[in-house]
Amino acid sequence: MDIKTIAVLIDTSPSRETRMDYATNLARRHGAHLIGIFLLPPDIGGGLAASHVRGQAAIANLLHHQQARKDDMIRDARDIFEKHAARQDVRCEFRVHAPRGEDERRLGALHADLVVAASPKDSWLDDGPPADVVQLATGVPFLLVPENWRNMEPPQRILIGWNASRESRRAIGDSLPLLALASSVTVLIVDPQATIPAGEEPGMEVAMFLLRHGVRLTVDPVQSHGRAIPEVILEYAASNEHDMIVLGAYSHARAREIMLGGVTRSLLAQSPIPLLISH
C-alpha cells in the first residue's frame, strides 16, 4: 500500500512553511494528493474587549472587522499553500476548519493516509488540541515536524522504536511506504529482555516481516543501563544521523503514561527530528 493522500495542518505561525515544504516534498515523492487544512484561530479580532462592545453600529463594525481579518488570514494561508504545491507540481486542495466544536470529528473523516503537523512544543495550531489527542481521535498516523527542522527531503535514515506491542506493529504498518523507500532502517529495541519473550531472538520476526517488503534494515538491541528510554532513543537517533523516528504511541493507557511520564509524551515534547506516531 502506498501513500495516496497526505493532509498538512496549517496555522498562522511562521513555522507553517516548514510543514508545507515537508508535506509537498513527501507528496511529490509518493505521487500523493495533498490537502491543506487551515484551522482558524479561536479569537479573530477583539479579544476580551469585543465582549464589551455595545450598540448596533459598533457591533456591526466589529463583525465586519472580524470577517475581513478572517478572509485575509484564509487568503494568505491559501496563497502560501498553493505556491508550495505548485513549486513541486503536486495535486492539492485547500480546506478551512472552524477552531472549535466539531473539528476533531471532521479531522477523523479525512481519510488521509498521513497527516503532517507541528510538534506539540511548537505552539501547535494556535492553542488547538495537542497532536497526540487528535491522532488518537482520528486513528490516522501523524508525522510531527519540528519548527527548526531544515531537511525537507523525504526520510532516508529511519529509526523504529520497537517494543513488540500492538501499537509498534501498527506504526510499522502505517509507515511501510516510507520504510520501503528509505536507504536504511534501524529497528531499535531498548532493554529487549523487558519486552521480548525469553528464548526469542530480539527483533527477528519484525525483521523478517520488513525484509519481505524489501526494506533495507538492521536490528539493534541496546541496554538503557537505567537511563530513560526517550533519552536512549534520541541519543541513538542523533549519533546515527537518523532523519525520522517511527513510534507506536501510548503502548500503555494514555492516562497511565501521563502519570508516569511515558515514552510517547517525552518524545513528543523533546524530539528534534520528525516523529511519526501511530496508535
Q: How would you describe the overall organization of this protein?
A:
- The protein has 279 residues and is of the alpha/beta class.
- It has two domains: 5-43 and 71-145, Rossmann fold (3-Layer(aba) Sandwich); 157-278, Rossmann fold, CATH 3.40.50.
- It contains nine helices and ten strands.
- Strands 3-2-1-4-5-10-9-6-7-8 form a ten-stranded mixed β-sheet, with helices on both faces.
- It is elongated.
- It starts with a strand and ends with a strand.
- Residues 123-130 and 252-261 have low confidence and may be disordered.
Structure, briefly:
This is UspA domain protein. The chain has 279 residues and is of the alpha/beta class.
List keywords for this structure.
279 residues; alpha/beta; Rossmann fold; 10-stranded mixed sheet; UspA domain protein; plasmid; UspA; Universal_stress_UspA
Series of secondary-structure elements, N-terminal to C-terminal: EHEHEHEHEEHEHEHEHHE
Biggest sheet character? 10 strands, mixed
Assembly classification = single chain
Annotated CATH topology of the largest domain: Rossmann fold
Distance between the ends: 18 Å
Strand content: 15-25%
Task: Name the overall outline.
Answer: elongated
The rounded Rg comes to 21 Å
- Adjacency order of strands in the biggest sheet: 3-2-1-4-5-10-9-6-7-8
CATH class category name of the largest domain: Alpha Beta
CATH architecture of the largest domain: 3-Layer(aba) Sandwich
For the secondary structure, the number of strands is 10
Number of helical segments with 4 or more residues: 9
Q: What is the helix content?
A: 40-55%
User: What is the typical, i.e. mean, pLDDT?
Assistant: 82
CATH superfamily caption of the largest domain? HUPs
> Which spans have pLDDT < 50 for at least 5 consecutive residues?
123-130, 252-261
- Helix/strand-derived category reads alpha/beta
Number of domains: 2
